[in-house]
Write a structure and sequence with these properties.
Oligomer: heterodimer
Radius of gyration of chain B: 13 Å
Strand content of chain B: over 45%
Number of helices of chain B: 0
Helix content of chain A: under 10%
Strand order of the largest sheet of chain B: 1-9-8-3-4
Order of helices and strands of chain B: EEEEEEEEE
Distance between the termini of chain A: 37 Å
Largest sheet of chain A: 7 strands, mixed
Helix content of chain B: under 10%
Shape of chain B: globular
Distance between the termini of chain B: 35 Å
Radius of gyration of chain A: 14 Å
């Protein structure tokens, strides 16, 4: 089966500019996650969607970050305006949300954002 | 905050078994132990998970102590492609993943 797709793979912007990342999850996966991974750290969950509804956005900096998942499939994460500390890899993941089994999350390759 | 403690780095000779320890002394009865790994420039990859019993799949074995306060991930015959950061995570099924800094495993030729 096709994996989680993300684009772009790399993005360089200047501070105060805006940027958007796109994610296409594995077909049929109801749950979609966005993570931020700063160099040298583990991924940190920013937002979790169940279909097109938000389940957890407690760690999303809502003054500058926004995310949507229209129609419960693709998702877009936006940063506006970007700050230097937003430089990181942004990972998208999806899972089938079954109550049984591993409920493993499948991750995309990530988008590496550099803010200058 | 991560609920696990892992050594920051380990080395293992190619072809030998790699044993990665994890301490989770505050684990609750309904929390599972999950292992993910992240190869350089890739997203994390699920390896294995378990509750109480030892588990084995095509990638690895998971040994959980009887008191469930620690566990060991075993890669039976490490190859260079197993060089990665390995994350041990405890969570209730369907709860969010909270990653720590993991163990950076280097397989030495």
């Amino acid at each position: 089966e096709a994996g989680v797709a993300q684009s772009p793979r790399y993005k360089i912007i200047e501070k105060r500019q805006s940027v958007a990342f796109w994610c296409n999850p594995i077909s049929g996966h109801a749950t979609l996650y966005w993570y931020q991974q700063i160099l040298g750290q583990g991924p940190k969950l920013l937002i979790q969607f169940q279909n097109n509804g938000v389940v957890d956005d407690s760690q999303l900096p809502k003054d500058r970050f926004s995310a949507e998942r229209l129609k419960g499939v693709d998702s877009t994460l936006k940063i506006q305006p970007a700050k230097l500390e937003d430089s990181a890899v942004y990972l998208c993941a999806s899972s089938s949300s079954s109550l049984k089994g591993a409920n493993e999350q499948f991750f995309g390759p990530g988008t590496r954002l550099t803010v200058l | 905050d991560a609920k696990t403690t892992q050594p920051p780095s380990m080395d293992c000779a190619e072809g030998r078994a790699a044993n990665l320890p994890c301490n989770h002394s505050t684990i609750s009865g309904n929390e599972y132990v999950y292992w993910y790994r992240q190869i350089h420039s890739q997203g994390p990859q699920y390896i294995i998970h378990g509750l109480k019993n030892n588990e084995t799949n095509e990638m690895a074995s998971l040994i959980i102590t009887e008191d469930r306060k620690s566990s060991t991930l075993i890669l039976p015959h490490a190859t260079l492609r197993d060089t990665a950061v390995y994350y041990c995570i405890v969570r209730v099924v369907n709860e969010k993943l909270t990653f720590g800094t993991g163990t950076r495993l280097t397989i030495i030729p």
